[in-house]
């Protein structure tokens, strides 16, 4: 009760001191100044009331915010965006510059930090770099000073440990776990222990800072008390001194508790390390035991089959139907996992994780592109030097990189929450393009691509090039987890000299079995910049409407185009999920190359600044944001493998049993992947000429089948029909589309490809 009463008195004092200093404007800091008592109360009041004001919070070891930086005598102090991360202090003109243009960086490990006055402070590395900075207020300056001192201590500690970083945790001599090296797992344990040690050191530094600043505050209050002021000011000074003493006692108690924790953590760190190491070694031994048991089981089953043999009852007929895979010895390229509920071993193909590195061939780009300005890109003969070794059909299949978003959507009870996952899926397909400046191969007419991941991920995917001019590809995906995805995409592209615009035309459909929810959306425009001069970079811009035609729910997504003058984060995407009545339920935000989050809307109101079209903006009050999607990291060495993702690396991997028109069998694409680009260019010309000859033949056949009256109406047209898709009218959009008619997977199971055209 006494403690609660003391806390109540401190809160009352904080309120009074705020009222007392509300009209003070004096900026003098001299101890002899007549305004010193008010200044002291002003500082204490700000400290006491600090938790009531919104403060920028650091994310992990990163601290960000606006600070004024001295530039020159003409412009004076200018506002700059500063980022403190990993012991480095960097600054930018705007937040949008963080992705590409850093204006300067100081390593805090060797820097000095000094305070000039209430808001000013200086950071210098003793050389040519010195930042004269000014915070918006003294409290904000103190936050930066605390964050900088913490980062400086940590950076100095890491620099001191860099030479002998491997001495603290010796590598284990235990055998490696199956499928993963022991060194990798031991490094994970080391990393976790180092992170814990780093956080403990940060806590120790915080303790020192609290003790340091608390002592300074106590000294200042003692000096004020010695002035022997009378009247109301003297009473207030004594009250503040009393409360400061209470604060010091409480802080000392916290510091002692933290010090006890530090001592305990440091004393037991070695024991915890040994316990973790023992657990890891025990797990390794268990895995080895399981491996031995699996081998013995395989040998026993093989011995049983040999003993049964042909001619002994009817068992031999069943054994011929069920081929057995010995994954441990005879087929190292397969791994086996038990399938529920039976105990059969189901083979899962081990996919490749690398492709040959991209050769460094030089090419005069302008000599090819100068005659192509304003033309349709699909009609320009391009060498493979500008390509990546996959076709447009395979690139379209990459939309399934984050298929698990549709798996989660299929399980949602609420259609509005399901919309959030579908919208995130529509954004995720662009994350694979951020570094992919290579052009995929234009598919030949009739070319197909299948991706059978039913055992691993529950889906089967089939693409077919159903038209050549304009180029159009039909795509159909069926999942065992309750959803179907289909789309027909026609790509229109224009070269504008400095940049290339790619406009995908067509509608994407996602249908869920549960609730029969049917969603549609389209794709945004992709722009490739710096075609002639500079480093190529890609941007996505435009708007998407994801519509649930079953319920009327809608999500409007905006892809903000990059602007040098914008303060927004680069590659920003925002969206609002609304029901059929236009009421907002969720807000989505993030970037198309990194992650998306969604927040439930609690209240919305009109207010704030007017939008670009003069409309009043809507302000949404939301709950805490939840992450709905995050981009997978690129594989190691991706920069030498066309920046392919883990999925993309497997798309052109040769597979037995695929159709003769499958992109994996395309010879020029295979030659390019192997680094034989000259041969690939020659093969590409042969295939394109073969396709042109086949088209001329179809046109002659179409002309001969017409009557004379029909032939007079115009030139002969191509009567090509797709093999696995039928042309029809979409009942949702009214568009003419190609819909999967079935039969492909059955033909693959039979291995009867006689009807497939020989396009290669």
> How much helicity do the residues have?
25-40%
Give me the count of strands. Answer: 28
What is the CA-CA span between the terminal residues? 87 Å
Question: Structural class of the helix and strand makeup?
Answer: alpha+beta
* Radius of gyration based on Cα positions: 34 Å
> In what order do the strands lie side by side in the largest sheet?
4-3-2-1-7-6-5
Low-confidence stretches: 1-7, 9-59, 163-182, 311-342, 711-716
Which percent range describes the beta-strand content? 25-35%
Q: What is the number of helices?
A: 16
Mean pLDDT comes to 78
Shape: globular
Family: Belongs to the OSBP family.
Pfam families: Oxysterol_BP (PF01237), PH (PF00169)
Protein name: Oxysterol-binding protein
Subcellular location: Membrane
Write the layout of secondary structure elements.
Elements (H helix, E strand, L loop, with lengths): L1 H20 L14 H13 L14 E10 L3 E10 L2 E5 L11 E4 L4 E4 L4 E5 L5 E5 L3 H24 L20 H44 L5 H78 L6 H7 L12 E5 L6 E5 L15 H5 L17 E5 H6 L6 H8 L3 H14 L10 E3 L6 E6 H4 L1 E9 L4 E8 L3 E13 L3 E7 L2 E5 L4 E5 L3 E5 L7 E12 L5 E6 L12 E7 L5 E8 L3 E16 L5 E7 L3 E5 L15 H6 L15 H7 L3 H29 L2 H4 L13 E5 L6 E5 L3 H7 L10
Parallel strand pairs: 10-11
Antiparallel strand pairs: 1-2, 1-7, 2-3, 3-4, 5-6, 6-7, 8-9, 12-13, 13-14, 14-15, 15-16, 15-17, 16-19, 17-18, 18-20, 19-20, 20-21, 21-22, 22-23, 23-24, 24-25, 24-26, 27-28
